User: Which sequence fits this backbone?
């Protein structure tokens, strides 16, 4: 007897189940250390932090991301990369770390610890400590070009979020014409251009739909992170510009 064809919805669900069939193998190899710099072109002490982030971006086993914040724009120079969402992310960290205010420049390592981006030695100590620490990452993978799958694992108290980050891997030198850095040229690398929350993650396998990509020159990384500025639990980089998706 010939079996009836599955309707489109059933086919879609079957595909999702197949995509998540690997989920019980919950943990993959150690992920790169994620270092997030919060900086501003109008901040007089941010130049050295930018250079430090650019140096870290060239280091194996480290994923350095540069977020430009907009709250320095009132000093006379509007940051060319700043978005309100980046400052919101930094404020979530400030609350998590019980800081009175958002410091600039600031570097956050793995969503766990933070230091002034102007203190290179302190940042280096945090990065080395994260590199030495035993760690596992959630099993994650891209499903085609439009979805990403996150496997199962213990979720932190309060849950977690899945974030899409798209950043420019090229070095960019910005000549500042006004404000505290007038006349200076600031180096930027791995500048985040898009930050999108894909949805919550509660420890169970789940598929997330990716928004359509815009600029082909941007690289993509997906982060699973404790809610409201928690620790980073999983990192998945798209294979592009010589990078590989597995670490």
Assistant:
């Amino acid at each position: 007897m010939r079996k009836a064809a599955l309707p489109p919805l059933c086919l879609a669900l079957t595909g999702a189940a197949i995509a998540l069939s690997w989920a019980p193998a919950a943990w993959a190899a150690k992920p790169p250390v994620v270092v997030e710099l919060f900086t501003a072109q109008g901040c007089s002490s941010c130049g050295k932090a930018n250079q430090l982030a650019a140096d870290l971006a060239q280091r194996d086993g480290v994923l350095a991301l540069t977020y430009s914040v907009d709250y320095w724009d009132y000093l006379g120079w509007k940051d060319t990369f700043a978005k309100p969402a980046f400052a919101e992310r930094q404020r979530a960290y400030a609350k998590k770390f019980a800081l009175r205010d958002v410091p600039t420049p600031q570097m956050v390592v793995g969503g766990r610890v933070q230091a002034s981006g102007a203190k290179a030695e302190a940042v280096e100590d945090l990065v080395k400590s994260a590199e030495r620490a035993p760690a596992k990452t959630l099993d994650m993978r891209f499903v085609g070009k439009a979805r990403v799958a996150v496997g199962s694992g213990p979720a932190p108290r309060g849950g977690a979020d899945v974030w899409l980050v798209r950043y420019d891997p090229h070095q960019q030198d910005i000549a500042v014409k006004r404000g505290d850095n007038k006349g200076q040229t600031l180096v930027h690398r791995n500048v985040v251009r898009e930050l999108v929350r894909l949805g919550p993650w509660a420890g169970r396998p789940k598929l997330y739909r990716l928004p359509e990509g815009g600029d082909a020159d941007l690289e993509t990384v997906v982060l699973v992170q404790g809610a409201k500025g928690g620790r980073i639990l999983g990192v998945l980089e798209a294979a592009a510009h010589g990078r590989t998706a597995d670490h």
